[in-house]
Automatic annotation (TrEMBL):
Virulence factor required for growth in low Mg(2+) medium and for intramacrophage survival. May be involved in regulating membrane potential by activating Na(+)/K(+)-ATPase. This is Protein MgtC. It comes from Kaistia nematophila. It is a multi-pass membrane protein. Keywords: Cell inner membrane, Cell membrane, Membrane, Transmembrane, Transmembrane helix. The chain crosses the membrane at residues 12-31, 43-62, 68-87, 117-135. It is found in: Cell inner membrane; Cell membrane. Its main location: membrane. Residues 19-140 form the MgtC/SapB/SrpB/YhiD N-terminal domain. Belongs to the MgtC/SapB family.
């Protein structure tokens, strides 16, 4: 049998240690994810870590460290596709980014273990768990702090729903009103919304506004003949 010819005890024991380390470290990361009821929990993180370790260890055993580097790059890109499946968009909100990043880190842990860098795998595990636990209170404290819209750099959009037949006139009028209110539009787009309605979207030049002033501007625009609705929104930049 070919197995008897190629089997070597010490290299096999090395593989056992690598996979066991990946399993243990993946479990440590996965327990925290499972406790918080995330999409990718205990089993997923363990499988990602062990799978990455198995691929890297196999490459190390067959072709050596040089080719193992190439396999690691494939593992990184492959786990990227896996992580994309954990990301969900709900309206304006995106969920699952942290879960996808954790899966990516689990693959890094497995790759380190597969490359016989057990201490490095342990170190990455410590930092991943710390990032998912110790930084959580800080993130929550920042999220609870009210946003200072006048001080923050953001993008502001004024959205006006109008009757389609009034679009050319109102587009110019909305631009003029924003200019007079000292909130000029850097970009003005028009979209057909069907049912004889159209939408004007004005992206303001300003990166800071007074919310009360913007509310007043939106109310004045909404009172124009041919306008059915006017509102404004803010989106902070990354």
């Amino acid at each position: 049998m070919r197995f008897i010819e190629v089997f070597e005890f010490w290299p096999f024991l090395d593989t056992v240690v690598s996979l066991a380390a990946a399993f243990i470290f993946g479990t440590l990361v996965g327990v925290e994810r499972q406790y918080r009821q995330r999409t990718a929990g205990l089993r997923t993180n363990v499988l990602v870590a062990v799978g990455a370790a198995a691929f890297v260890d196999l490459a190390m055993a067959i072709t050596g460290p040089a080719e193992a580097t190439r396999v690691i790059s494939y593992v990184v890109s492959g786990v990227g596709f896996l992580g994309a499946g954990a990301i969900m968009r709900e309206g304006m909100n995106v969920r699952g980014l942290n879960t996808a990043a954790t899966l990516w880190c689990s693959a890094a842990i497995g790759a380190c273990a597969g490359a016989d860098m057990i201490a490095h795998a342990a170190l990455v595990t410590v930092f991943v768990i710390a990032g998912n636990t110790l930084l959580r209170p800080l993130a929550n404290a920042i999220n609870r702090k009210p946003l200072d819209e006048e001080a923050s750099e953001a993008t502001y959009e004024v959205t006006v729903t109008v009757r389609a037949g009034e679009l050319p006139r109102l587009r110019t009028l909305v631009a003029d009103m924003l200019e007079k209110a000292h909130y000029p539009a850097g970009d003005l787009e028009a979209h057909d919304r069907g049912e004889d309605l159209a939408e004007i979207v004005a992206t303001l030049v300003n990166t800071a506004v007074n919310p009360n002033e913007m509310d007043a501007v939106a109310r004045r625009i909404e009172r124009l003949a041919g306008v059915t609705h006017a509102s404004w929104a803010i989106s902070t930049k990354d």
